[in-house]
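> forwarded from #structure-qc
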């Protein structure tokens, strides 16, 4: 008979009205009422009202005495005294059976599986009454105490085990439906267990290390394989100092790459006097591969100057020849296939501007094509500064023709449209050269429009140049680049600083 559907008969000394009726399940329960599992060692009566005999092996320790998995949180909280009494083999008061039945009935609101048969290690009342052989608990290994099942199991739909059942449970905290997790996870930051010189070892093997996380390798596209950080390119910021001359180039704050380039050199004239040379080129952004054009032009011009000056070629003629050599180098790029990944929708020829300066003990020579400039700034700031070049631009042509004032021309949106450049598609190459003989010491500032846009007039440029520029050229170049970046850094910035007259540093080139 289903003991969950009929009242328990009254025991000895009880009235029939005292029979305990199980509480019906909640009306919202979708499953059949659970069976109530009362302890089997309680005194009771058979169907005739006669007392049942006591268990024959009641004094023997039963496996049920070990802690068992608990029911859901609500049932275990209310049924704990009964479980302890049953484990100790003590009879329970009859009045406590009803609260336990109520707690289990409330637990039926949650999805529950049908109760399993009674464990074979616990003898049933019928077997005890018949006097049959009792199963020995030693036939099965003793069960280890199990912690209470988590309350979240009912929410996640996991089956709950009724109190007193012997179904094995997994170890505490183990989810069988989850894949095995690794002992360690990949680190997104540098591993402190790795020696600090690991980066140097990786660099020695030719593997670039990310400048951001210092843990990942840099792929061929210039991005870290670990954190995805874009790595700075070699030309994003460049500095060079060669004796008394120095140059600095920076990508700026708005451009994704640096399309400027520079070249510095020192040599000696046939009489042994020193000669300093600096070349600065600005790639035309609207052209194809402008960064390659500026680099090729600056290198070709510097090599031409350092080869011609020791042979006794006049510095102004050497400058003219250097501009022609730079133009030929840029033209050659147009005939070369573009490297992989450098294809552009613009198929016009690579192009750049040019400005250079040669300083000797008594002569200053400049040459240019485009809108890159050279300035003269005396050491004595009481003397006037001067701009040494004239732009190949729309604004300069308007001013030269007398059609507009300088302020009006450079305020026009067409002001910086260049009319001269180095490149295969240039209308006609017209190298501009000029020579000067300053009567006092000073410095020559050779720069792209990324700088002079923030110090356009000679007076403004002189105010931006440090007073010790003649003896600290690298520091001065850094200050001038910082001046442009502080002003907005809308373009690439490149500047070279040469002292005049040339300091006697000895022969040789760099």
């Amino acid at each position: 008979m289903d003991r969950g559907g009929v009242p328990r008969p009254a025991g000895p000394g009880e009235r029939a009205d005292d029979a305990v009726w199980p509480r019906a399940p909640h009306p919202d329960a979708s499953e059949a009422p659970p069976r109530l599992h009362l302890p089997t060692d309680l005194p009771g009566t058979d169907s005739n009202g006669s007392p049942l005999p006591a268990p024959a092996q009641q004094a023997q320790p039963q496996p049920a005495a070990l802690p068992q998995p608990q029911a859901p949180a609500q049932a275990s909280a209310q049924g704990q005294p009964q479980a302890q009494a049953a484990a100790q083999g003590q009879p329970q008061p009859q009045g406590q059976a009803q609260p336990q039945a109520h707690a289990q009935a409330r637990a039926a609101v949650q999805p529950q599986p049908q109760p399993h048969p009674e464990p074979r290690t616990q003898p049933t009342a019928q077997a005890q009454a018949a006097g049959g052989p009792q199963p020995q608990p030693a036939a099965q290994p003793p069960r280890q105490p199990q912690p209470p099942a988590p309350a979240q199991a009912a929410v996640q739909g996991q089956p709950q085990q009724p109190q007193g059942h012997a179904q094995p449970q997994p170890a505490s905290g183990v989810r069988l439906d989850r894949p095995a997790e690794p002992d360690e996870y990949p680190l997104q930051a540098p591993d402190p267990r790795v020696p600090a010189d690991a980066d140097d070892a990786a660099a020695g093997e030719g593997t670039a290390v990310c400048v951001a996380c210092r843990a990942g390798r840099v792929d061929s596209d210039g991005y870290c394989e670990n954190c995805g950080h874009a790595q700075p390119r070699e030309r994003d910021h460049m500095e060079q100092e060669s004796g008394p001359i120095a140059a600095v180039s920076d990508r700026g704050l708005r451009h994704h790459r640096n399309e400027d380039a520079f070249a510095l050199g020192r040599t000696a004239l046939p009489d042994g006097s020193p000669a300093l040379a600096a070349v600065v080129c600005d790639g035309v952004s609207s052209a194809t591969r402008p960064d390659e054009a500026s680099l090729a032009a600056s290198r070709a011009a510097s090599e031409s100057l350092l080869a011609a000056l020791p042979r006794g070629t006049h510095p102004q003629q050497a400058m003219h020849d250097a501009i022609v050599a730079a133009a030929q180098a840029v033209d050659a790029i147009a005939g070369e296939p573009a490297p992989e990944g450098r294809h552009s929708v613009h198929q016009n020829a690579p192009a750049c501007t040019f400005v250079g300066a040669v300083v000797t003990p008594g002569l200053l020579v400049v040459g240019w094509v485009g809108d890159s400039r050279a300035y003269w700034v005396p050491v004595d700031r009481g003397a006037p500064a001067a701009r040494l070049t004239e732009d190949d631009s729309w604004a300069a042509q308007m001013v030269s023709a007398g059609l507009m004032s300088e302020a009006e021309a450079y305020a026009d949106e067409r002001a910086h449209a260049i009319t001269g450049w180095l490149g295969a598609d240039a209308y006609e190459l017209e190298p501009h050269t000029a020579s000067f003989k300053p009567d006092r010491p000073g410095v020559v500032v050779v720069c792209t429009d990324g700088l002079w846009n923030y110090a356009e007039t000679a007076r403004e440029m002189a105010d931006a140049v440090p007073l010790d520029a003649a003896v600290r050229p690298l520091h001065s170049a850094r200050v001038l680049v910082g001046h442009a970046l502080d002003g907005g850094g809308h373009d690439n910035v490149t500047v070279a600083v040469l002292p005049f007259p040339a300091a006697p540093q000895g022969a040789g080139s760099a």
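QC bot note: The chain has twelve helices and twelve strands. The first helix runs from residue 73 to 87.
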